[in-house]
Design goal:
- The protein is mostly helical.
- Helices cover 73% and strands 2% of the residues.
- The protein has 11 helices and 2 strands, in the order H-H-H-H-H-H-H-H-H-H-E-E-H.
- Strands 1-2 form a two-stranded antiparallel ribbon.
- Strand 1 and strand 2 form a beta hairpin.
Length: 324
């Protein structure tokens, strides 16, 4: 089936060129301050929630299906519309990658907080922390904020970069935008607030499923790219399952081992206090300088993810050609 083989090869090249271009654009310009597609999706999802919200899992599942399904379908229609043009397909893939990947903005926000902490300006650091994570900044001192930043860099490397690229490699543009939609819905309604305890259940569970492969790939690559592969692997094996999140556990434990720091412990979210297990208890406390180390590790993981996803598609294409 030579026609099918050429189609598979073409799809692989489209993803490789598009993902590389999209990551390059993200590296150069980051996220726009206004008019970001993810923010537009968030507003649309909030409007749907206002119409569908009931304190019931079924209504929450419907909300998830409408929002994530419509986004993936729109991506599929867009990809179909440009399928006859390789250049347009590459451009669409690049635009989708740029829209859903937030690695550069993640690094900028982390470094901004790190700079404020290094200057001793805790108030500025507290003002910026909500841009990065949902912790209660008023409940955190300098070292606790530094730890929160490192943990957020680790988790968002998986959510905002690796997971998206993985699903892009598997399913193209629909996979890219669909994964980002699921991840955004989890951030919006997938938490245990009184309003969303039942309504957000479906979004949270779907995010766990969709994020599973990307989290493991992130942990593997952080282990390989960090300064202590054996230590990272040891901490991952020993501590990942102790984390309450099935996906954050492998990622944060691998980062903790790779950086040689201690993560986890007491956290505060909007008035709620959580006592999480310590990851890498033999490591040292997080210091401000570790924020920059975490950002650099995140960037190395991003580059390795692109290589792994393109390489995986090439291998699959070669196997399908052989069996065609």
């Amino acid at each position: 089936m030579p026609g099918r083989s050429r189609s598979l090869s073409r799809a692989t090249r489209v993803f490789a060129y598009g993902a590389t271009l999209g990551l390059a654009v993200d590296r150069l310009v980051g996220d726009p301050r206004r008019g970001h597609p993810v923010a537009a999706f968030g507003r649309a999802a909030a409007a749907v929630e206002e119409r569908l919200h009931h304190d019931h899992r079924g209504w929450g599942a419907l909300h998830t299906a409408v929002c994530a399904g419509a986004t993936a379908a729109a991506g599929a229609l867009a990809a179909r519309a440009v399928k006859d043009s390789r250049a347009a397909s590459v451009a669409l893939t690049a635009a989708a990658v740029w829209a859903v990947v937030g690695g550069t903005t993640l690094g900028r926000e982390a470094r901004a907080i790190g700079g404020a902490l290094e200057a001793g300006d805790l108030e500025v650091a507290r003002e910026r922390l909500p841009h990065l994570c949902g912790r209660d900044p008023q409940a955190l001192d300098g070292p606790a904020m530094a730890r929160a930043v490192v943990e957020s860099v680790a988790e968002n490397t998986s959510d905002a970069v690796v997971g998206a690229l993985f699903w892009g490699a598997v399913a193209g543009v629909p996979g890219l935008v669909g994964f980002r939609a699921v991840n955004t819905l989890d951030a919006m309604v997938g938490h245990k607030s009184p309003r969303h305890r039942r309504f957000g259940w479906a979004s949270a569970r779907l995010d766990d499923v969709a994020g599973w492969p990307g989290a493991r790939l992130t942990a593997v690559l952080a282990t390989v790219a960090g300064g202590d592969p054996r230590g990272a692997a040891r901490v991952w094996r020993a501590d990942a399952a102790r984390h309450p999140s099935p996906n954050a556990g492998p990622v944060e434990s691998a980062f903790a081992g790779a950086l040689g720091v201690r993560l986890g412990g007491t956290l505060a979210y909007g008035g709620r206090v959580e006592h999480r297990p310590v990851l890498n208890g033999e490591g040292r406390p997080v210091e401000v300088a570790d924020i920059e180390r975490a950002v650099r590790l995140s960037r190395r993981v991003t580059g390795l993810t692109l290589a792994a996803c393109v390489g995986g598609r090439l291998i699959v294409s070669a196997l399908k050609r052989r069996n065609a």
